[in-house]
Design a protein that fits this description.
The chain has 366 residues and is of the alpha+beta class. The chain starts with a strand and ends with a strand. It has 5 domains: 93 residues, Immunoglobulin-like; 59 residues, Arc Repressor Mutant, subunit A (Orthogonal Bundle), CATH 1.10.10; 51 residues; 61 residues; 67 residues. The radius of gyration is 28 Å and the shape is elongated. The strands form 4 sheets. Strands 1, 2, 3, 4, 5 and 6 form a 6-stranded mixed beta sheet that branches.
């Protein structure tokens, strides 16, 4: 015989039910830190060391009684089923997408510029106030974005943010270009070729106005993948792309022949140049007689906004033209759109049409 009774400690509000995905269960059983964040103005988010999930409350039509044992089915003697609580709803977890745009917007509130290198400016009352209001530590960013430390670090790495005095910063693009020009000018003055192994210490002797952290950060962005913290060898293709960008900063559109001539003058001796190096930097127009500056780095990270910007610049695109601008939002390692692929992005945001007497297709705004 089975008896159903209410326990002396019965409390209908004492327990909450939550359905957990396998990866969260693994984190709990392995002893990892699992916590819930979110204030009164935010949605509650459950974080593991590597993932974040929204807590979604699901109501049920039936009242569920919560008991402390379910071993009564095969009982041979009288059993009491003690009800400890009840629930008419439960929580489910849905993966929280990474918001790269939000983090970038936070860091762009106070990008690192030349002014930050001046100690007199850094110590001014205005700058101290700016430090307190618009600079963010890793924990600050975790609170703002409601993501785990691992996820925030992944986004910071993707955005090429740099940690200075405990605060994460984005280097202003114009200042980054200035620093790279200074590095290349120093190499010319010292008669160092592109294969010379550079160190922050060797450059600091000639560029003492530039913060060492920024020197290392800039060198890392233009060096071979094998670069270490104390030895950098500049990449010829990255230097060539940098000099191409510098030309476009002077003039937005160039005849191809004139551009190639000026580009050849700008790059160090022995550095090859080719229009293929302009992927994601510029687009060939019309019959390929001119090249127009259109850097993917200045486009929105959000796929919908990025397509809007692209079609505002040019109403019809070939697949070859589109691909460099989709790589950034399709690559899983970039953590921008999660599982979106190039095909799914094209299907969602574009309309394809055939070109007469050609196997190619043109893509326009949907």
């Amino acid at each position: 015989m089975t008896n159903v009774v209410f326990g002396d400690d019965y409390d209908e509000d004492a327990y909450k039910l939550m359905e957990l995905p396998a990866e969260v269960c693994d984190s709990l059983t392995s002893g990892d830190e699992v916590y819930i964040v979110g204030d009164a103005t935010q949605r509650a988010v459950l974080c593991t060391p590597s993932q974040s999930f929204y807590l979604v409350k699901e109501d049920q039509s039936n009242l569920r009684m919560l008991v402390d044992s379910c071993q009564w089915e095969h009982a041979t003697s009288e059993v009491d089923i003690t009800i400890r609580g009840c629930s008419i709803n439960h929580y489910e977890l849905t993966e929280k997408p990474l918001n790269v745009s939000e983090l970038k917007a936070l860091l762009m509130e106070a990008p690192w510029t030349k002014d930050w290198c001046a100690k007199s400016v850094l110590s001014s009352p205005a700058k101290k106030k700016l430090r307190a209001s618009t600079l963010y530590t890793l924990n600050d960013l975790m609170d703002k974005l409601q993501h785990s430390a691992y996820e925030v670090r992944q986004i910071l790495r993707q955005l090429r943010a740099v940690c200075i005095d405990g605060f994460w910063r984005l280097v202003d693009p114009s200042y980054s270009q200035h620093v790279m020009h200074e590095i290349l000018d120093t190499m010319v003055q010292q008669d160092w070729d592109l294969s010379t192994a550079l160190s922050v210490d060797s450059l600091q002797v000639h560029l003492d106005a530039i913060t060492p952290v920024i020197l290392a950060h800039t060198l890392g962005g233009f060096s071979q993948p094998s670069a270490t913290d104390d030895a950098f060898t500049l990449s010829p293709t990255k230097v060539a792309a940098f000099q191409a960008t510098a030309l476009f900063e002077e003039r937005n559109e160039w005849p191809v022949a004139a551009f190639m001539e000026q580009w050849g003058f700008r790059v160090p001796d022995g550095v090859p140049i080719d229009l293929s190096l302009l992927r994601g930097i510029a687009i060939l127009r019309g019959d390929a007689s001119s090249v127009v500056y259109f850097p993917q780095s200045r486009l929105s990270i959000d796929p919908k906004t990025r397509f809007h910007e692209m079609f505002a610049f040019q109403p019809k695109w070939t697949l070859a033209q589109l691909e460099p601008y989709l790589e950034y939002v399709c690559c899983p390692s970039q953590l921008v759109t999660g599982k979106l692929t190039q095909a799914s992005l094209l299907l969602k945001y574009t309309r394809a049409s055939r070109v007469l007497h050609s196997p190619d297709r043109l893509y326009s705004k949907r």
